[in-house]
């Protein structure tokens, strides 16, 4: 790419109407001149060849991606010696770059798959001279946002639906996760609901399996839910995992509804973010998302896609409550990323409602304090599995330990002290120490 | 996980009917005992809690994933110092492990999203004590395969449709990729077809954009295709990219068909592999796949998912022709991976037809020899973009250079020598040297 051609991929040569542009942030490493590498990146993501042979035209002003800002630092060696070797670059002169790109979204419209194509497709991840690249953030203009419905309920809608105010919503993943009959699952969910659980959810591995067909499972869980509601006087929720082949999602939603489920879940990336958007148009209940497959893209810090990019896209598409990797070493995520997703869910986004963050990964009663202190507010969900369903006193005791964990916080009493008067919490602490 | 509990995640404790099991291969790194780490991996991917409290039951025999084989070697340091630090492991004792796992697929049935959930979801990518993990291969039992349609045409069907035998099929990505009116795109495709191009395809960035609505584009390209067929006496193909929100894929397919397109493309991972399976049931024309988004999962050698896993899943789902990262440094893939996808497309797979491999990335006339020599046969597609549409003699000359490149191979003449009598090929060589 000649120097004169590079310049057309920098924004200072245009006065941009930013309402026509997405802002995409990346970090990348290169041994080429950073300006050349950034220009090539923009070229590959947009107008790879911007004119026909012999025709006096230039598609870059209207269709070209443009560098808004570029900062670089020299680093002693690439973060990926493997890719560096593959690209046969000399290690002596490596630049780590941060770039913000203005992308004219009318190139493809307001379509999520096509956005993923340009932002994380061949153009970005196979651009010449770029050793490693990570898509770190995205910002939307108002005109783009207005094409999206966002969450149907959002945080306040979920709170109203459940009549839960001023505290985290307690989700519990039914365990054993695989192998229970619908009746057995309903029985332990009933126990947990009676102990204080708000939402009983199918594990992400659950499906419309022949050993637990969704229709029967939803029916059994719904009967148990209604009994628990009668018994406790509280509103309860059964959340059905309807992850399946994409053309089965709406039919499964309908089966879940006909049998009384009052929320649905998708393992979003396994069916595509677009499937949420499809479901959002169809569903009358909250939509929850699980993070399967995202780890293959998010866990390497110099490569792939940052968690919050997905969080933003899922909120746009219509996710009411987002399960994502939380504050636990095995979740292989940073505290910063966990906070970023909370912020992403709560940030002002035009008329788009707020999305409830549910940091996942071996949560228990003690997690409530960690999360509450980390976030500084109670607008989150907590999602134990074994801590409820493998609790030494059973699911009822496990769920009670969660409520007690919150009571301790509200009263300003350390949980170990509060546990002295509350056996469920005491046993929960002991279970964690095993 | 106690030693006695670990044992139930190893296959030697069962006699398995392998027709009920998928075989999943991984490489992973751990500082824990490799047997413990492998058992925990199986646990997290299947029966996270295999019995109810106080109930004498064990779901592991039927529902548990089981280690079939495990080999380990000590390595001086983890491939990911970042993840190692996050998991707070001592670097002194790191094992790199290869594991083959038998997975009872009746846990979820023959559903691709649910397969991705267990094989690349929270279980696999957030298993305790595992620093890095990469899903490297998958093998299907016959009972699983029989649920899938596979390619409708396959290689022999494509050859018959196009009446092209004994040589690679020449695809050309219309460039400029973004910004052309339908008529302008049709004009240059006509030129390329007349020069010898077989298939003119929309760029992966093309969509049903307002500046080039698919209906008008397909109509213009189809008129040009028919004129080119009349002129050359050859069969030609226009392949429409119908990547869009997932509920728009079938409607866009229909629009493409009504306007004469004779093949369709999806940027598969942006819409989910499941979308191919949906389209396969509906489409009467070949389905082609582009590799956008896969790079975020495949490029780091110790992490994510190996290319051939996706190739196999796409063949099952019904892809007739697969564009994937080819033999070019910027494609950030290994020669071994490029070959593995060719083998994957051609391997015997019950009644499932063969899938045409199309290694992508800045291909030109000279690539034909590289690919032919590498593969040892002509059952592949070659996919130039600029080499056809930015050829100094125009798209007609660019396409002619591709045919000449193949003629040289057939006659056993080095292309530089053959180029002496063939100006299009000569100029193609010079273009590459710019």
Characteristics:
alpha/beta, 434 residues, homodimer, 21 helices, 18% strand, five-stranded mixed β-sheet
Largest interface: A-B, 100 and 100 residues
Strand order of the largest sheet of chain A: 12-11-9-8-7-6-5-13
What share of residues of chain A is helical? Answer: 40-55%
Sketch the major β-sheet of chain A.
Answer: 8 strands, parallel
Mean residue pLDDT of chain A:
96
Number of helices of chain A: 21
Q: Name the beta content range of chain A.
A: 15-25%
Pick out the low-confidence regions of chain A.
none
Rounded to the nearest angstrom, the radius of gyration of chain A is 24 Å
User: Which class do the helix and strand fractions of chain A yield?
Assistant: alpha/beta
**Separation of the first and last Cα atoms of chain A:** 61 Å
The coarse overall form of chain A would be elongated
Oligomer: homodimer
Give the total of beta strands of chain A. 13
Chain-wise SSE layout:
2 copies of one chain form a homodimer.
Chain A: H1 3-6, E1 21-30, H2 34-45, H3 60-63, E2 66-75, H4 81-86, E3 94-104, H5 112-120, H6 122-125, E4 130-139, H7 142-145, H8 154-162, E5 169-173, H9 182-195, E6 199-201, H10 214-232, E7 237-241, H11 249-258, E8 263-267, H12 268-271, H13 273-282, E9 287-290, H14 295-298, E10 304-305, H15 307-317, E11 321-325, H16 335-346, E12 356-360, H17 367-375, E13 381-382, H18 386-389, H19 394-411, H20 415-419, H21 423-433
Parallel strand pairs in A: 4-10, 5-6, 5-13, 6-7, 7-8, 8-9, 9-11, 11-12
Antiparallel strand pairs in A: 1-3, 1-4, 2-3
